[in-house]
Amino acid sequence: MNRTKHLVIVCCLSILMIIAGTLGYMLIEGWDVLDALYMTVITVASVGYSEVQSLSSMGRIYTMVLIFSGLGLFVYVAGAVVQFMVEGQIRETLGRRRLDKKISQLENHYIICGYGRIGRVLCNKLKSKPIDLVVIEKDSELIPVMEADNVLHLSGDATNEMLLLKAGIEHAKGLVAVLATDTENVFLVLTARQLNKNIEIIARAGSDRSAAKLTAAGADRVESPYAMGASNMANRILRPTVTTFLDLAFTHRRKDIQMEEIPVGKASALVGKMLKDSGIRQNYNLIIIAIKKSDGGMLFNPSFEATINSGDTLIAVGESGNLEKLENVLNP
């Protein structure tokens, strides 16, 4: 049974006993409500005060029954309260230790600093892929939300070096700074860059001036939700069909249209083959719309003679099942 529900039931039983005891004295002895309630409370609590008024034989028998019943209920209530408090503390401690152990074992993960509106949406999007995440959030009211969303989390100030080290920043792949203010994000980027010179840092900016400061502080990429939102609205006016296609490809609302980027591993059987000989179109019914080369160059609409090399990233469009099959071949 749920611990909270159990405690509520116990409290209700206690109230019912008090009411029943009060009614009993009123019916047996003919006392008023206050005297009956007072006698019930001191009897159930076994405090040993003198009787309110002299009791009849029936009243004394009723009092003895009430004493034994109240003693049993008191022991039961005390045990339930202690169990509620102790189990809650133990579960909280053990749960925190399990989280800390999982976080300490992570490598090549992403640290999301801030679990506000942007941070939560970001985490929900990233969880659709097998990406390890650790969230740092200082607002204690968001802890139940993170627990409900089943994300690894640490509570505290993300700009604190010790907390970043505890989140595994030294062996993390990337960090996303989406704290409440630009000032906090700038300080966070500076701290993170000092702790790990090679980590990829993406930061949110509220203004162009802040974007420049974040870049100077060490952010690899700076994104402005306001600029992105305005650009998206403009594209919906200027290029409605294109934006509709991109919505379908990236939101995964349709299984027949999805876009994915797939890295090419050294062990892939397609390394060194041209697109025309790879069988990607014939075997998986996928369209390769671009190839990002290992040196950072991008081939848009690559020709059928383009060669697939290790370290390349193929951007493909097609059904999710076929994309997964291709991923197994390109990155076995």
UniProtKB/TrEMBL annotation:
Subcellular localization, as worded in the UniProt entry: Cell membrane
InterPro entries assigned: K_chnl_dom (IPR013099), NAD(P)-bd_dom_sf (IPR036291), RCK_C (IPR006037), RCK_C_sf (IPR036721), RCK_N (IPR003148), Trk_Ktr_HKT_K-transport (IPR050721)
Sequence intervals crossing the membrane: 7-27, 33-49, 61-86
Keyword hit for Ribonucleoprotein: no
Keyword set includes Membrane: yes
Boundaries of every RCK C-terminal domain copy: 247-332
Domain called RCK N-terminal: residue spans: 107-223
PANTHER family in UniProt: POTASSIUM CHANNEL PROTEIN 2-RELATED-RELATED (PTHR43833), POTASSIUM CHANNEL PROTEIN YUGO-RELATED (PTHR43833:SF9)
Protein name per UniProt: TrkA-N domain protein
Source organism: Desulfococcus multivorans DSM 2059
